[in-house]
Structure prediction request, 573 residues.
Amino acid sequence: MKKLLVYIKEYTKECMLGPSFKLLEACFDLIVPLVMAAIIDNGIAIGDKRYIFKYGGILVLLAIIGLICSITAQYFAAKAATGFAANLRVALFKHIEALSFTEMDEIGTSTMITRMTSDINQLQSGVNMALRLFLRSPFIVFGAAIMAFTIDLKSALVFVVVIPLLAAVIFGIMLISMPLYKKVQSALDNVLSMTRQNLTGVRVIRAFNKEQAELQSFSDSNEKLTNMQLFVGKISALTNPVTYVMINIALVILLWVGGIQVNIGSLTQGEVVALVNYMSQILVELIKLANTIVLSTKAVACGGRVQSILEIESSMRNGDYKDKEKERISGTEVIFKHVGMAYKGAGANSISDIDFIAKAGSVTGVIGGTGSGKSTLVNLIPRFYDVSEGSVFIDGRDVKSYELYSLRNKIGIVLQKAVLFRGTIRENILWGNPEASDQDVIEALKAAQAWEIVISKDKGLDYVIEQGGRNLSGGQKQRFTIARALVRKPSVLILDDSASALDFATDAKLRKSLQELSYKPTIFIVSQRTSSIQHADNILVLDDGELVGQGTHEELVKNCEVYREIYQSQMEG
Prediction:
């Protein structure tokens, strides 16, 4: 938690001014019982109305000044807490963006979303309350005790006994509840994960009639979270009744002792009222402090969870080589030398001993059964994952020596799942190259066979695509994502099964337009269809993570049994 305080450093002034104004307000609050005692003893007792109105005016003035101090303190505390949360959220997002796919797979999407939203919101509330009350409440408690000693030593001994007892109860509850709040947040992660999976896979769930099973599974997880929250809530809820009972017992004792002192003339009635007021102030402030500690306990637990993400270091080290030929628009050579790759936690390599050369401007097809390692292979080119064995070279350099931005700036990739963002068609395509002109966008759309979709829309390039491309068909989404990759005119173009939703005629037109591109990129086409890759210069055939054949279509039909089986099954179909 201490490491997170660096993100509030720029709000040091607010962190000092907020508590300072709260302490100033507390000072005025401590004066109020003394003024009340004076009004009772010197005004009401002798019927001096002038004295009563005079000191009544002082009470009103103290209230106004206290209100101004309180509002000012609230402003500075809120500004510091909000700024701290904003800085932390930006830092966490930036850190997550810097992590490799390996760490993202390990952490999980739902966990990162919870850290970014719920946990940081809890931290913001905790910091806000701490700045306002962590100094004010103890100051009032001890200040009230000291003021009680200035009034009467014997009566003040009640304060000496009750304050440590109350502190023991509050901190005891805090120590018990802190680890429980961590478990509650973990259970919340699980519920969020299940919710995300259900919303993402709602069509599959309905297709297989699994609604009731998923409802039961969610209900079990939600009930577990509810029970944990109720349990820790019951423990935290003990704070108020226990403290109220202790304070009320202390008030009874105080009134009894004070009454005796009044009878013997050691105390005045006004001084007894002042002592009771100080005891009431202690009650109110300890309740506030207890609630602050409960909220701060949650914040500390959430802070630890956020910090655990920030402490994760990316397993991928950034190189220092920057491609100096930024203006070059041409294909580039890609070499795999005995490459093997295993996902973290996997028992064996996903791909093993992959060895081939993709010449500059050539077309390389990648085919194989489901789970054969096709996507794993092409994900190594932009270095989404690092190789476990061997090396991948682009332009004669190991991809590990490249600065990641420079490396990925050379590559256009269309992943298996077509992802579009809410915005116009133009805005989505410009993700590939923010500096592209409308003419560049149109050329990319035409090459991707998507221009006919654009001209069919009322607003053309300004047609708004919904989040995830909900208002487009699967084939339309795939063509737009291909156009997004083409608009950057990459040296290496990777199409990872990105034409699976296209009909054969559109697929053929797309392959023809790719071969006619003026900048001649080195193209990798991952596909389940032999028709999509049979005209490639070199075809890689994968089976269970191994390269079982490579060559042209004609060579593989003759010499590679795996490829021949795939080809014959599709031709017969």
